[in-house]
């Protein structure tokens, strides 16, 4: 049995190379070197969670286990890990699709408590799986959230040199423009490719149509496998969730009307707010609250509902790109802010207020032709974030810069 598992793992690692590493690679490696015992990497499918784990496995030496394989289920994860450590001296394991293994919570607890001097990287549907567990795992596991490729990663994936900058530098036009001038390629050309369908590593191998089909399959998995973990919901309501996403994909972000959506989906108000909260918790949407509201409150009117991934909107929308590009820009900006754990709110005098290093900055998101007098920008401490401009001018910042920051 152990020989079969080792052979499978060794064969899997033969095809692994290091031509591209996700931005999380160094951080996960450091966590392992600092003896973080169990690291759970999570988010959507197809963002190279497993491949990064295999790269680390190949570099450090260890064993890969597919949690829901017949051999693993028959012999138990705990017994396999213990036997491989005791008999073959392995102390590093990657356990994939952990949430598909029966009673996985207790298995992980026993490994943590009873097997010393090992490291585990595990992947599962999402962090919310822990919330329904009867076993307290939160203090035993380090969680790392994997987002889609950012723009700097996309460039590196295409063998183009990029450079990350500190978030404070985004407000410095001299620094930003010198950085952009240092690139020996047309950055806006690659930006157009990236924002249309380049957020996932599989984009190079597939046609545009197949890319969007793949993204739709990711959405289906999130709804039909991940969502029931968060919310007790019947199948009929699950089917309406995709219709909900279609509605918001074709709707200007400022025109979404809760009453109309409730009537169209034939649901009540409580279901509507429960769906919003659940979809936010599995990272399909971002809900933008009033500047005065910091917590999720079912009685409040949310000012904007955005997709957590701009490619999600594009895969759903039946409209021409020219019609949805404005909303995709806001998807971009909000996704960056939220994924970097910065506070963001809707503001009545602008698109968004963002708290950076304890200072609130005000942003408007527009296309390159938006004209606002510099004096007005300075008087209102307002920054324009513009799509399809190459250089920063006064308080006008290229949108792509936010996806090249060090903490993105």
Can you describe this structure?
The chain has helices at residues 2-14, 25-33, 49-60, 70-75, 77-88, 104-114, 151-157, 173-181, 187-197, 208-230, 235-249, 258-265, 269-281, 310-316, 321-339, 374-379, and strands at residues 38-42, 63-66, 92-96, 119-123, 142-145, 285-288, 304-307, 343-347, 350-356, 359-366, 382-386, 396-398. With 408 residues, it is of the alpha/beta class. The protein folds into 2 domains: 2-145, 3-Layer(aba) Sandwich (Rossmann fold), CATH 3.40.50; 163-403, no CATH class. The strands form 3 sheets. A 5-stranded parallel sheet has the order 2-3-4-1-5. Helix 5 (77-88) runs parallel beside helix 6 (104-114), helix 11 (235-249) crosses helix 14 (310-316) and helix 14 (310-316) packs antiparallel against helix 15 (321-339). The chain is globular and about 70 Å long. Residues 293-299 have low confidence and may be disordered.
């Amino acid at each position: 049995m152990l020989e079969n598992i080792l052979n499978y793992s060794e064969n899997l690692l033969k095809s692994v190379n290091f031509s591209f590493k996700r931005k999380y690679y160094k951080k996960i490696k450091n966590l392992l070197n600092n003896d973080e015992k169990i690291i759970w990497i999570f988010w959507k499918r197809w963002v190279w969670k497993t491949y990064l784990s295999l790269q680390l496995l190949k570099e450090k030496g260890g064993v890969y286990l597919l949690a829901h394989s017949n051999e693993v289920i028959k012999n138990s994860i705990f017994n396999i890990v213990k036997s491989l450590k005791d008999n073959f001296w392995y102390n590093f394991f990657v356990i994939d699709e952990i949430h598909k293994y029966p009673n996985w919570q207790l298995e992980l607890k026993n490994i943590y408590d009873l097997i010393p001097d090992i490291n585990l990287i595990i992947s599962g549907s999402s962090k919310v799986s822990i919330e329904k567990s009867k076993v307290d795992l939160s203090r035993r596991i380090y969680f790392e959230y994997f987002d889609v490729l950012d723009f700097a990663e996309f460039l590196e994936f295409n063998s183009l040199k990029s450079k990350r900058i500190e978030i404070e530098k985004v407000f410095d036009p001299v620094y930003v423009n010198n950085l952009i001038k240092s690139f020996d390629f047309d950055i806006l050309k690659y930006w157009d490719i990236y924002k249309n369908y380049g957020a996932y590593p599989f984009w190079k191998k597939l046609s545009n149509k197949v890319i969007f089909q793949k993204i739709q399959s990711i959405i289906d998995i999130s709804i039909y496998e991940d969502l029931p973990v968060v919310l007790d919901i019947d199948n009929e309501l699950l089917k309406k969730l995709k219709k909900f996403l279609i509605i918001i994909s074709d709707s200007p972000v400022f025109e979404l009307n809760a009453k109309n959506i409730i009537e169209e989906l034939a649901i009540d108000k409580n279901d509507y707010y429960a769906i919003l909260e659940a979809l936010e918790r599995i990272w399909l949407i971002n809900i933008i609250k009033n500047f005065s509201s910091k917590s999720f409150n079912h009685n409040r009117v949310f000012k904007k509902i955005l997709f957590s991934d701009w490619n999600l909107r594009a895969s759903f929308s039946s409209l021409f790109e020219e019609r949805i590009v404005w909303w995709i820009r806001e998807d971009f900006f909000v996704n960056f802010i939220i994924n970097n754990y910065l506070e963001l709110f809707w503001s009545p005098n602008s698109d968004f207020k963002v708290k950076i290093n304890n200072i609130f900055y005000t942003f408007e998101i527009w296309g390159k032709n938006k004209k606002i007098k510099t004096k007005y920008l300075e008087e209102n401490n307002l920054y324009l974030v513009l799509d399809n401009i190459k250089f920063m001018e006064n308080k006008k910042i290229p949108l792509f810069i936010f996806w090249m920051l060090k903490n993105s």
